[in-house]
Amino acid sequence: YMKSPLIPITGDRIDKMFADMAEQNPGVELPSREQVLAAYEHVRHRAVGLGVARDIGFRLPTLWAAEGHAAAAPVWLYRFDHASPFLRLIGLGATHAAELPYVWGNLVSGPKDPTFRLGGKRVAELISTRMQARWIAFARGEDPAAPDAPPWPVFTTEGADARATLVIDRHDLVVADLDGDLRRAWGDEVLSFH
């Protein structure tokens, strides 16, 4: 795993992150380190730090922003989980901004791009078609529907479909409160660290 001075992925850096958050947010009741780490009990030990960094850096701020915006306007939340067989094999999987080639229909970045060397391009093209249909509908101010895919409900904080998230993969799936365990572990306060 990578060693990064920017994001907390080791035990000592996670401890420092919690100490820094407490110092920088004196009026906020922070979750305990144990409370947060309990949400990662199903994660391999070596990957816990990456999970914490991913969630405090990307996933939770996304949820907090969606909740804030949903109070004033319609919001549709998604998580892109698809990765080609090659990207899964090398342990990269779906990463931040990995969906952009699918949105733009530029799945291959050149003749030496290894992304689809182990297959998966046909599935990627189908995912791209669905995503483009949804994004075009957004641009037209229409319901973000896609052929042969489930409807994508508006993100709300209440009701049976509370915090509905479209999970984009080989087959799209809508999940209510997808990150509920993480959200409850970290708490409802918007947190930051420097």
Automatic annotation (TrEMBL):
Residues 52-158 form the Carboxylesterase type B domain. The keyword Cytoplasm does not apply. Pfam families: COesterase. SUPFAM superfamilies: alpha/beta-Hydrolases. The keyword Metal-binding does not apply. One of its GO terms (molecular function) is carboxylic ester hydrolase activity. InterPro entries: AB_hydrolase_fold, AChE-related_enzymes, CarbesteraseB. Keywords: Hydrolase. Signal peptide: none annotated. This is Carboxylesterase. It comes from Microbacterium testaceum (Aureobacterium testaceum).
